[in-house]
Fold this protein.
Amino acid sequence: MKVAVVGATGLVGSKMLQVLAERNFPVTELIPVASERSVGKEVGFKGKKYKVVSMTDAIAAKPAVAIFSAGGGTSLEWAPKFAEAGITVIDNSSAWRMDPSKPLVVPEINADVLTRNDKIIANPNCSTIQMVVAINPLHKKYGIKRIVVSTYQSVTGTGVKAVTQLMNERQGVAGERAYKYPIDLNVIPQIDVFLDNGYTKEEMKMVNETKKIMRDDTIRVTSTTVRIPVVGGHSEAVNVEFENEYDLEEVKKLLCNAPGVVLVDDPSTQKYPMPMDAHEKDEVFVGRLRRDETQPKTLNMWVVSDNLRKGAATNAVQIAEYLVSKNLL
């Protein structure tokens, strides 16, 4: 099983290598790929060093699967070339997510859409992944009408430059900036660019991707996405209105039994999910469950997950694991 990781030297690419190793994905040969300026550099994987190669060399090596984490432009240019060579691409950028001909997959929810013919598979946005993992079992039981979500997103979602900016500001050091404004001791209510409707691209990703993953265009979603000075995980306040009445104890049972979900919900002992607890873990943590007292059939919940793992690397590797288990590569 030859596996290429495209963008292997980046923040998410490095996490892909870590997760592949931790989950013992059956890699017989690793092909790390990065931009031309990184070719020849070395990356570590399972105690060995591997030289970074170019895109063309990676295609020539004919891996079974290529996991991309190199940005939308790179994916648009190169994913079709890998696919034409018979290589299955799992792409972590936003390039293919809303393409009706490409599956957008969270394995706990809709891996069954995948076939041997799918050569470009989209990995959803980090904030969408953790939300749908938490709400899908509830949608199956009660039917979701509307979601209002506000996110509190880690600087790691922007990349290394943003982490450096936060740490520099914390130490009073001048340096390169990822954001227009300070991020330490601040909150920035903008993730990605603004669109004509006044929402940001990140907010509309949550709206559109949720419907596609959950295969239900009737779900109404409105989102506000916010960057906060945290490293290690995204948090979300999610308000969910159901078609049918729910029972809070039953909701807790459904979440306890849902794949990939951990319930941390005990107000009496001040137990609830926090990014520092989700850091370097693959699960989606849910807590602060309570009835919305302003309208019927509506639930408030708090959802936390490591955005580099379940929000990116782990989800991509889980897709690859599913393809292997179903003999679809």
